[in-house]
Amino acid sequence: MSRTQAKGYGAGLSASITIGLPPVKNFAREPLRTRVINEVLSGDKIAALAITEAFAGSDVQKIRSKAHKQPDGSWILNGTKKWITGGMYADYFTVAARTYGGSAPDGSISCFLVPRTEGVATKYIPTMYSAASGTAYITFDKVRVPGENLLGEEGKGLFIVLSNFNHERWSICVGLARSMRLVVEECLIWASQRRVFDKPLMAQPVIRLKLAGMIGQAEAMQAWVEHITNQMCHMDYATQARHLAGPIAFMKMMFTRWAGEITDEAVQLWGGRALTTTGVGRYIERAHRSRKFEAVGGGSEEIMGDLGVRQL
């Protein structure tokens, strides 16, 4: 999906499986778990992760959405969520909210799988990268959530949210590593074709130096993501959450910084063609314009660095 260089399309298509569904897979109870997994993986239903709010981004503990437990075991959910990728298309929302009246202390955070039902409204948010991502502002107005749709235990939702971030950040890094390899590939082709001052761009030492730096960063990204992925493949979910949050945070911080440097150099190499949205340089323009998507989404560079150092 990254090789299409259509970031909004990739985000809209993959967010359901990479960030919306994992909390269901890891924390939902049967038979809800199997039913929803089958619906989403078959493409019949779409899930969206609904954590971020207007006043609670990286600081998840500041969320204001509230769910009150009812005598029949169900919950009444009220609140809003913002910048929810795939929210316009979603049939299910994985929601974090403060809970009241249950077995956990009032105000603690729990997670729910909320179906698109009465009281759920979505409004499209235009973004810098594409309408295809279906980014949404979501309002939950007196939404009744069945008791069996609680994910994990009451009051233990923060662990679900934070551990799910690791998988989201890892998937962002996988996509970035491949995207930057494509940018480098496009630059190599262009530098071989484009003639300036009666010789190919590739014949200019300054261009070869730019390419060397870009290739070094792209190769480092690929090696790092394979290193982390190998560790993930030999750990269960709880062990990953305990030991890899910091390393993944460092990886994401450096990937988004390197992506900024690679796309900056690519624009310089392509010149005016990298400033237009059509033609042979359109992938470079798109990669440069949307490069901050990964640097902000899933946790900002500053938050990633702090998290990594604190865990270290």
What features would you describe in this structure?
The chain has helices spanning 7-20, 22-27, 32-41, 157-193, 205-232, 237-243, 245-270, 282-289, 292-296, 301-311; strands at 47-50, 66-69, 75-84, 92-100, 108-115, 120-124, 136-145, 150-151, 195-196, 199-200. With 312 residues, the chain is an alpha+beta fold. It folds into 2 domains: 2-155, Butyryl-CoA Dehydrogenase, subunit A, domain 2, CATH 2.40.110.10; 159-311, Butyryl-CoA Dehydrogenase, subunit A, domain 3, CATH 1.20.140. Helix 7 (245-270) crosses helix 8. The strands form 2 sheets. Strands 1, 2, 3, 4, 5, 6, 7 and 8 form an 8-stranded mixed sheet that branches. A hairpin with a 2-residue loop joins strand 9 and strand 10 (199-200). Helices cover 49% and strands 18% of the residues. The mean pLDDT is 95. The radius of gyration is 21 Å and the shape is elongated. The protein is built from 10 helices and 10 strands.
CATH architecture of the largest domain: Beta Barrel
Mean pLDDT: 95
Percent range of helical residues: 40-55%
Task: Note the gap between the termini.
Answer: 33 Å
Key traits:
two-stranded antiparallel sheet; 312 residues; eight-stranded mixed beta sheet; single chain; 10 helices; alpha+beta; Butyryl-CoA Dehydrogenase, subunit A, domain 2
